[in-house]
Amino acid sequence: MAVLVQLLITGLAVGMVYALIALGFVVIWKSSSVANLALGQLVLISSWFTYGMLAQIGLPLWLGFPLVILFALALGWLMERVALRPLIAQPILSLITVTLGVAYFIEGIVTFIWPKSVAALPRLFPVEPFHIGAAVVSQEYLWVAIISLIVFGLLTLFYRYHKMGIAMRATADDQLAVQACGIPVTRIFSSSWMVACVVAAVGGVLISSIGGITFGLVETGLKAFSVVILGGLDSFIGAIVAGPIIGLCETLGGGYLTPFLWPGVKDIIPFIIIIIVVLIKPYGLFGEVRIERI
Amino acid sequence: MTLPCGTRSYRYAEDMAIIRTKTQWALLIFLLVVLFTMPLYVRSNYWLGIANLIGITLIAATGLNILIGYCGQLSIGHAGFIAVGAYTSAILTNRLELPFLVGLICAGITAGLIGLVFGIPSVRVKGFYLAITTIAAQFIIIWVINHWGITGGFIGISAPYPAIGGFVFKSEASQFYLIITITVICIFVAKNLARSRIGRAFIAVRDNDLAAEVMGVNLFRYKLLAFFIGCFLAGIAGSLLAHWIGFINTEHFSLAESILYIGMIIIGGLGTTVGPIFGVVFVRLLQQLLTVGVVPFLEGTFTSLPAGFATGVTPMLFGLVIVLFLVLEPRGLAHRWALFKSAYRLWPFSY
Prior knowledge:
CATH architecture of chain B: Orthogonal Bundle
Number of domains of chain A: 1
Shape of chain A: globular
CATH topology of chain A: ABC transporter involved in vitamin B12 uptake, BtuC
Shape of chain B: globular
Number of domains of chain B: 1
Mean pLDDT of chain A: 85
Helix content of chain A: over 70%
CATH topology of chain B: ABC transporter involved in vitamin B12 uptake, BtuC
Low-confidence stretches of chain B: none
CATH architecture of chain A: Orthogonal Bundle
CATH class of chain A: Mainly Alpha
Strand content of chain B: under 5%
Distance between the termini of chain A: 55 Å
Oligomer: heterodimer
């Protein structure tokens, strides 16, 4: 029982972070229909940047974290401007491959600047565990879940009330009509990339504050794709619902299936979910079903 | 169009032929002679090794080109399918001590069947969904290989030298003949496949799968066929790779390698037969140039380089090359080659 509670809480918290990273994907997909496969690498580089600011230079948190946000904004702007802007209206293959190229490039930069493969972020949250019944749960997980929810709330408000957010939703709906209304679509694309990078960066910092910074973060970013697929590519609600589901499947499966299967089954569960979802319900739980016409 | 003036066709067979003029025949024979006599004038095992690697990569890239370039089905898990072939062949020849040829064929078929399994979603979805499915396939395959006892797990498995009949291909030069023969056969088959009914069905599916279905192309059949052929070639390449390296583990088949394969066919030019050749030669030579030439040189010259320079510069540069090619020359080196050929044919007149 204690184990179950512990697994449940861990799974929910990790799932919230997955959901957050997945939001970074959904933001871009909604406004520009570009599949950003460099998500994991964005998580990786922003975690390392945080490490560089907080641990290597030794900045305090109140100064370091805004710098990370600024860095993510710059990164998002740069990626859109250099790699994606010239490829507007190109076939989806080019768009996917260009993000893969960017991913490769970022991985190179990371090994270039931070050659060691493992590092730990300084403690961001208090570490004393708290007790629920007989279960002992690290406090970090709770904080991570709360911050994820706050970011999700902010994002929802931004999309609901801010002018730019409304413009982004409009662009997602109909690019041509939006352009006719005088909204600069390219600027919308660029700001959606910036928002996405910030969201991915926050997710990255949260998850690496728990698990440390390794190249496994790339895989974490890839696992966020299972959230996106399960929730539906263009749905915020989908990401927020599917995130904890994936997190729970992962921790529960890892906790209870490992004795029967090989170790490490935890890491593979999200990928198996991807295949199952694509086979059964390809547009996910909340995704918009596109009807194709010739 | 792409033929010199005065080339006339009197029969349909002539019109369909790939090689039309005497010059083309001469050039082809010249190329084959140069290729097959390579071990006679390239004495160094190092360069022959690179040629072998290029040959093996070319088989896999040709498979991927059929899948992506002709049929339009995105696969980012190609290294996973190569791994299936490599391990099948290694297990069959090492653990069961079957002959090499059996291993080679079985490697292709197993990889093709695994490709079929992971290709089934392609019937319902495409684009990004398929990309993610194949990434998932890559991770699942590598995970299974790492944990299944018969594959040697994380440590890896050794594969004996390839042998046909009583002859053992021990030296780089003899392996070169083996690999280059299979490569030439594969490219020949791929070229002809693209011109056949199947190839035209693939192209129709790529350009618009709904329209193709309306025209009577069986999507289920042709999409899965593309997956089978693409992964079959990946399996053949994997088998050759295993026997050429001699000892494999999953480090050889990372996701980065899959991305590099896509990079190769993009750089070369999608949907052309010469494309993969250009792309593979370009990427593999650039890799060698970087790891053997440029990086040690720079490290020797500038002693204050950061420690991650050697490992970081290669992915960085390849990422950059992929992005630049997509932005500046999306049709790849094959397009440049076609431009060069037509310019050469008309030279010195530009019209």
